[in-house]
Amino acid sequence: MIKTTGKEFKSFYEDDSVWIYGMYHEDEVITVDGKQREEYETDLMQIADASTMTISGGYVTNKNDDELGSLEGLFKKWKKKQTTAFLCVEIDLKKLEDLKVAVKNAGGKIA
After folding, report:
1. Is the residue at 110 inside a domain?
2. Residue 28 within any structural domain of the chain
3. Domain tally for the chain?
């Protein structure tokens, strides 16, 4: 099982270098904010950026029915190639401005 955020998952899901025409996935277990998502129940692109998600198993295939591994595995491979990180943080409101300044000073951006 892999943990991620809605924002990071959507970046993965929209990456044309991963999702070649005709690819699809099935039978994975996805939780969003602790609740298991039923297949086809929710548009994955509508998940809130700050949501916490888990992805487990499933399989990915293409229009030729070639086995391309699991959705979880594909996400892990994609994540290893990334040069940025996505964070979801909880902080005392009194320290929020300090955090924003630190992120910007480190070259990051707040989504």
Report:
1. no
2. yes
3. 1
Structural domain includes residue 97:
no
CB-CB neighbours of 43 under 10 Å: 7
Closest C-alpha to 29, from 60, 68, 55? 55
Contact 73, 38 (CB under 8 A): no
Distances, alpha carbon 78 to alpha carbons 5, 23, 26, 31, in Å:
14, 15, 18, 19
Q: CA-to-CA distance for 96 and 2, rounded, in angstroms?
A: 28
- List pLDDT tens digits, range 66-97: 999 999 999 999 999 999 888 878 899 999 99
Instruction: Give me the percent of the chain exceeding a pLDDT of 70.
Output: 99
CA dist., res. 77 & res. 72, Å (int): 9
3-state secondary structure 72-89: HHHHHHHHHHCCCCCCCC
Q: How far is CA 52 from CA 17, 27, 111, in A?
A: 24, 20, 15
The verdict on residue 42 lying in a domain is: yes
Residue range(s) defining the domain that contains residue 68: 2-83
